[in-house]
Design a protein that fits this description.
By secondary structure, the protein is of the alpha/beta class. The chain contains nine helices and eleven strands. It starts with a strand and ends in a 17-residue tail after the last strand.
């Protein structure tokens, strides 16, 4: 027995068996039959799947599509202050630290740490004691996941830049931050943090950014104090990123071209 048939009145290509109706025909459009050669054409190449993790600067870095990251996205609160991924200036600062190093056992504060790669690199490569600070506590599970994958321990603190007192800043030798000056209202608290850090005896402050206007304003204000410089920086393949690094030297005087805490000046 023949199956029931359906044909659109404008279609000149023949009858279409009901139950095998293509989507386009079900919407009232004419669907010409495939030519025999089209039926035998091989399938196109499969779409390339981006890697779920990468390795750079001695670190294992998980992508947002990694199953463990996806699990956190499902089970934990989502970051709300742009902490949903690793931002490019982290690689700029990682490259700088990879070239110039950090003294062993240095006490490092990672400002606006997000997923924490800069601090994790300081702990893993240079055996630093690292605290990651962020105003959004929802980033800390992602930081701890990366710390675990890289075999290090990172302390965390839920706080804003303005919350840090000079006495608390004095507990650190090095302060780092990447992509942390992206809003105009972040300029003043970051500038005050830098000045308090210098007065408290922090040896060095490093902030990397692709040169957003708020960051440029922060640089201009720091340069007026005479203890800062701004470095253009570009990384080499396989990680190709570029940006600027604000470097502020602490109150301790440098000797013979070296920082007193043991790291060569650029």
């Amino acid at each position: 027995m023949w199956p029931s048939l359906l044909v659109h009145p404008r279609c000149q290509h023949g009858w279409i068996p009901r139950g095998t109706l293509p989507h386009a025909a079900s919407e009232g459009r004419c669907v010409p039959p495939l030519h025999a050669t089209e039926l035998s054409m091989p399938a196109g190449p499969k779409r390339r799947t981006p890697p779920q993790e990468r390795h750079a600067f001695g670190l294992t870095i998980l992508s947002p599509s990694h199953p463990e990251v996806r699990r956190l996205q499902h089970d934990a609160p989502r970051p709300s202050l742009h902490g949903q991924k690793v931002w490019p200036s982290s690689f700029v600062l990682l490259d700088y630290l990879h070239q110039y190093g950090v003294p062993p056992q240095a006490r490092v504060l990672d400002l606006g740490c997000g997923w924490g790669l800069v601090g994790i690199a300081c702990a893993k490569t240079f055996h630093a004691q690292v605290t990651g600070l962020d105003a959004d506590a929802a980033v800390f599970p992602y930081l701890q996941l990366h710390a675990q994958r890289n075999g290090v321990q990172i302390a965390t603190r839920h706080s804003t830049f303005a919350d840090l007192t000079p006495q608390e800043l004095a507990a650190f030798d090095l302060i780092v931050g990447a992509d942390i000056c992206f809003w105009e209202d972040l300029v003043d608290p970051l500038y005050q943090l830098v000045r308090h850090s210098v007065a408290a005896g922090v040896a060095e402050i490093l902030v990397a950014d692709p040169s957003r206007p708020p960051f440029d304003e922060l640089c201009a204000r720091c340069l007026q104090q005479g203890d800062a410089e701004v470095l253009g920086w570009a990384t080499a393949p396989p990680v190709t990123e570029s940006g600027r690094i604000l470097r502020v030297s602490g109150a301790v005087e440098a000797t013979a071209g070296r920082e007193p805490w043991g790291r060569p000046a650029p």
